Amino acid sequence: LALGILVSSAPSLLSCFRESSSKDQSENDPDSDFIKHGIPDLIGHTPLMQIQSLSAATGCTILAKLELANPGGSAKDRIALAIIEHAEQKGLIRPHSGDVVYEGTSGSTGISLAMVCRAKGYRAHICLPSDTSVEKINLLEKLGAVVEKVPPAGIVDKRQYVNMARTRAAQHNASSSTSRGLFADQFENEANWTAHYNHTGPEIFKQTQGKLDVFITGAGTGGTISGVSRFLKPRVPGLKVVLADPQGSGLFNKIKRGVMFDVVEREGTRRRHQVDTLVEGIGINRLTKNFAVGSAFIDDAVRVTDEEALAMARYLVENDGIFAGSSSAVNFVAAVKYARKIGPGHTIVTVICDSGARHLSKFWKDAGSVGGEIGLDLDSILK
Ligand code: PMP
Fold first, then answer.
1. What percent of the chain stands above pLDDT 90?
2. Which is nearest to 335 in space by CA: 257, 258, 243, 256?
3. C-beta separation of 227 from 195 below 8 A
4. Which of 14, 36, 216, 262 is deepest in the core (most CB within 10 A)?
């Protein structure tokens, strides 16, 4: 009888137990966060970490959103997933039906798209400049993407990587009646900034409990700065949004002069390779749709040289064990410069976009190896 009672009441007991147990666990035990169901489940909800050395040196609380903790190693996982899910909702593509996602990118977006495509039943076709680093090409191929090399990034004509990806998607749709080609179009596709508005911004708001004074980051497509600032600005009184801009980029002067771009680059026009910097992924000279939607929220800009970024990257390894990519190093230089400008006692949030492992053959080759230089003075590295 006792057993019968136990068994018959087991379901409700079990569910009670499960509810209270999972609640207690999730509050106290970071390992209790259930089982994830595939790669898309792992994207986002990245940690926010205080940078001890920079906080101590500036008297500000300098926090970094660890986007390198996404499964594909960068913030681009968020937009890859958003772009694909948005296209699915609009009925443009269907999983396991032979549909192909096309993108022109030499950066992390290709890697994130290749990964998310495999996870969701699509193929990825990535057009990239022929001078893209061999690590990235290898990674894309190992992730099962079709890799099409086109002329180097400085040459802007119909073979330019973004233009070529657009063309390939159009050719796919013209030639197939059974499957679809989707041009991901990270620069213009508004699923990019909205992914940061819907996720990155709210996560930062929650993690800081709305207590932050500055959000500072660079812009490549502009999706991160636009989405995060559009979410945070109305919710955080007095928040300053600051652009971290590498040398060679045209954004700094435009923000400083309070004018945005007068000319929108037209498809297929030739321009010189304007961003001449070791830093990859950020710094633009044209008004992308993703940057435009957030540009009105940007209060200030800080310019960062390659030399400063290289020194900062070494500083973070030496003092914190943080091995960051080039755009993250730019963000930290800008965060420290801005902290010095506004003085101690403020909370500054920035982003670690990706790891130094993606930048071994370029940025970190120039940075060299880090020796026993603990105690490197911040003043000596910031111009
Ligand atoms: N860091 C890296 C390494 C990037 O590749 C990019 C985007 N190209 C960014 C930062 C900037 O992000 P966003 O495109 O959202 O402006």
1. 65
2. 243
3. yes
4. 216
Q: List C-alpha distances in Å: 251 to 76, 246, 293, 300.
A: 21, 9, 14, 11
Judged by average pLDDT, the poorest of 109-113, 121-125, 221-225, 250-254 is 250-254
Residue 365's Cα: distance from chain center in Å?
22
Residue 189, ligand 1, Cβ within 6 A: no
Task: Locate all alpha helices (DSSP H) within the chain, ordered by sequence.
Answer: 2-8, 10-28, 39-42, 52-58, 76-89, 108-120, 134-142, 161-175, 191-195, 201-207, 223-232, 251-257, 289-295, 306-320, 326-342, 363-367, 378-381
Two structure tokens written together for 149: 């090399």
ipTM of the complex: 0.96
* Collapsed DSSP state (helix, strand, coil) of residue 248: coil
Closest CA to 60 of 292, 350, 291: 350
Residue 107 Cβ contacting ligand 1 at under 6 Å: yes
Residue 9 has pLDDT above 70, yes or no: no
DSSP 128-149: EETTS-HHHHHHHHHTT-EEEE
The answer to whether 250 and 284 are in contact (CB under 8 A) is yes
Rounded distance between C-alpha atoms, residue 109 and residue 191, angstroms: 13
194 Cβ closer than 6 Å to some ligand 1 atom: no
104 lines ligand 1 (CB under 6 A): no
Residues 191, 79: Cα–Cα separation, whole Å: 7
pLDDT, tens only, 28-39: 676 766 789 999
Task: Give ∠ CA 315-318-320 in degrees, rounded to 5.
Answer: 90
* pLDDT reading at 124 higher than 70: yes
Inter-residue contact 215 to 349 (CB < 8 Å): yes
Q: Which of 66, 68, 76 to mutate to test the pocket of ligand 1 (most atoms within 8 A of CB)?
A: 76
Atom of ligand 1 nearest to the CA of 328: 1
Report the catalytic residues: 76
Q: How confident is the model at residue 336 (pLDDT cuts 50, 70, 90)?
A: very high
What pLDDT score was predicted for residue 11? 37
* DSSP state, residue 186: T
Q: Which residue has the tokens 């101590």?
A: 56
Q: Label each residue of 34-89 as H, E or C.
A: CCCCCHHHHCCCCCEEECHHHHHHHCCEEEEEEHHHCCCCECHHHHHHHHHHHHHH
pTM, rounded to two decimals = 0.87
